[in-house]
Specification:
By secondary structure, this protein is of the alpha+beta class. The chain is built from 7 helices and 5 strands. Strands 3-2-1-5-4 form a 5-stranded antiparallel beta sheet. The chain is elongated. The protein starts with 17 loop residues before the first helix and ends in a 26-residue tail after the last helix.
């Protein structure tokens, strides 16, 4: 018998602006978040991800209080003064959470502008990285050092992941302005190697999927908010 097709996992949604972030990066929202934690993103993309995380948190608060309000008005509780007090308090908390969510959304929109402008300006002239160069830059992003062998005088880069990178490849990436060495350290002890802003941008751009705008989906239901909103 033919196997049943594997269900396609639902797209994770954490804020009303997910589709804008996905469109400008070409990734689902989890990928820029992971790249931010690994230090791969340039300054403008890192700022955008930080603002988007703040927005996601405020959206979780809005979702929580909305669900609580629906629960209180579902008919499961006795209609008395205590219920009216809880509903009144929840409405105030929902309003406060919504105000915070809207303010966070404005910060995301402000952070989106330079990223969208840069993406539009560089889309036609960006030289795509080879698969090998992508792998090398990803390895360097996780931490790497250039060493000189004391006996043979041969130099090579060792990444934190264990990846070995030939010195010639490092030189080529340096000349392209994609990586930089900390020459304050001697090579026999290990010179730290890091991505430049241009290297981060090139790596991120090369790993983008086609920038088709993702359809909006229902927001993920939240759990209890991490920081309760005070009643006014």
């Amino acid at each position: 018998m033919p196997q049943e097709p594997t269900p396609v996992p639902a797209r994770r949604a954490v804020s009303p602006l997910d589709h804008r972030l996905e469109a400008v990066t070409g990734h689902d929202i989890d990928t820029p978040w992971a790249y931010r934690d690994r230090g791969v993103l340039d300054e403008s993309h890192a700022r955008l991800v930080d603002r988007h995380r703040e927005l996601a948190k405020t959206q979780t608060d809005v979702t929580f209080y909305l669900k609580l309000l629906n629960c209180l008005s579902s008919g499961e509780f006795d209609v008395d003064d205590a219920l009216f007090t809880r509903i009144d308090r929840t409405v105030d908390q929902l309003e406060d959470a919504t105000t915070a969510r809207d303010a966070a959304a404005q910060k995301v929109l402000a952070a989106l502008k330079p990223v969208e402008m840069a993406a539009g300006a560089s889309a036609a002239k960006t030289q795509p990285l080879s698969t090998d160069d992508q792998a090398v830059l990803l390895a360097i992003a996780g931490g790497a050092k250039l060493y000189e062998h004391l006996l043979t005088r041969r130099m090579s880069v060792t990444a934190a992941s264990g990846t070995r990178i030939p010195h010639a490849k490092l030189r080529r990436l340096e000349e392209a302005g994609l990586v930089v060495r900390d020459t304050d350290h001697p090579v026999h002890a290990g010179q730290p190697v890091a991505l430049t802003d241009a290297g981060r941008a090139a790596l991120f751009a090369s790993r983008r999927a086609p920038t088709t705008q993702a359809p909006k989906v229902p927001l993920r239901t939240g759990t209890s908010p991490s920081t309760p909103t005070q009643r006014r």
